[in-house]
Amino acid sequence: MPISVTFLGTGGSVPSKHRALPSVLVRRGPELLLFDCGEGTQRQFLQAKAGTNRKMRIFISHLHGDHMFGLPGMLHSLSFMGRTRELEIYGPRGIVDFVSSVNRVVKFYSQFPLRVKEIGPGLILNEKEYKVRAASGKHGIPCLAYSLEEKNAPGRFNPTKARKLGIPEGPLWRKLQTSPFIRMGNRKILSRKVVGPPRKGVKVTYAVDTRPCSSIIRLAADSDLLIHDSSFEQAAAQKAADYGHSTSTEAAQVAVKCRAGKLALFHISAMYDDDATPLLTQARRVFRNTILSEDMVTIHLSRNR
Ligand SMILES: [Zn+2]
Ligand SMILES: [Zn+2]
Fold first, then answer.
1. Among the options 66, 209, 224, 229, which is catalytic?
2. DSSP H or E segment with residue 73
3. Distance of alpha carbon 74 from its chain centroid, rounded?
4. String of b and e for 48-81 (b: at least 16 CB within 10 Å)?
């Protein structure tokens, strides 16, 4: 199933001229997973043409306004645009209170069932083809990082090899793809002779508003894409430490430690609105395959990077 990651907002704390507040939209086939919902996300979401009535889940990292003030607007817009399917929202303790309090005062949705769930670190979702897990970050308040990890898919079946071995097309071909071997008369044929090795799924990790930390390195192990807090450049390392954020160099060090395929610098401080290239240059000295996330840019990922 193809996966695409669209940065709806890539700034931090306050919106700037070039960056909206944090939100990342992951499309996996027809499904949507939205990580954080900063103020104004619903507009970016519409621009991304994500569709308003798809199976959708929202994961909130923490209860700082820049990561979740967009929720009421998003729910209101979805309702207004005719969503009827259930929507699930996951987040740390307090998310249920936030959503229900706002809804008590301002009835912002009515059309679709809403399920809001408070979660902590661990396995959050175990779907047929993928999992979502969370780990605690290191910030001033409880903050969760999330990873979306596809399960391995069966290896590719090679019909030419199967024919060469004299295996007739039909049920035996199907069996080769699901069992370690088949029997044909008195012959035993190992599936690995015609089926390639299992194909590793795509893994995307979203870790914002955090100091570099071991729980996130474990969560993000072998991610194809690591989206990591990079609020500041290295000259502001003390500021990053004081406010529970990371520099781009620190993000790059995390990418090295977790053997990421690609690093996207994210939650860029408005201080760098005119020029964020120092963040990119510094990170690339540590981890070459780094990009600077930009609003409304999409990355496509597929199995076997
Ligand atoms: Zn933030
Ligand atoms: Zn925060």
1. 66
2. helix 70-80
3. 19
4. bebebeeebbbbbbbbbebbbbbbbbbbbbbbee
Please report, for residues 62, 69, 148, 268, the alpha-carbon distance to residue 14 in angstroms, rounded to integers and kept in the order given: 16, 11, 27, 10
Closest ligand to residue 268's CA: 1
Q: Ligand 1 centre from 167 Cα, in Å?
A: 58
219-267: per-residue pLDDT in tens? 999 999 999 999 999 999 999 999 999 999 999 999 999 999 999 999 9
Quick one: tokens of 244? Answer: 């529970």
Q: Beta-strand (E) ranges in the chain? A: 3-9, 23-28, 31-35, 56-59, 87-91, 114-118, 122-126, 130-136, 144-150, 181-184, 187-190, 203-207, 225-229, 262-266, 290-292, 298-301
Site of tokens 């930009």: 294
- Residues 290-305 have pLDDT tens digits of 999 999 999 999 876 4
Phi and psi, residue 282, nearest 5° = -65, -40
Residue type, 294: E
66 catalytic? Reply is yes
**111, 83 in Cβ contact below 8 A?**
yes
pTM above 0.85, yes or no: yes
Residue 269 CA: which ligand is closest?
1
Measured in Å, residue 66 CA sits from the centre of ligand 2 at 7
| Residue that the structure tokens 């709806």 belong to | 8
Provide the token pair at 220: 């993000």
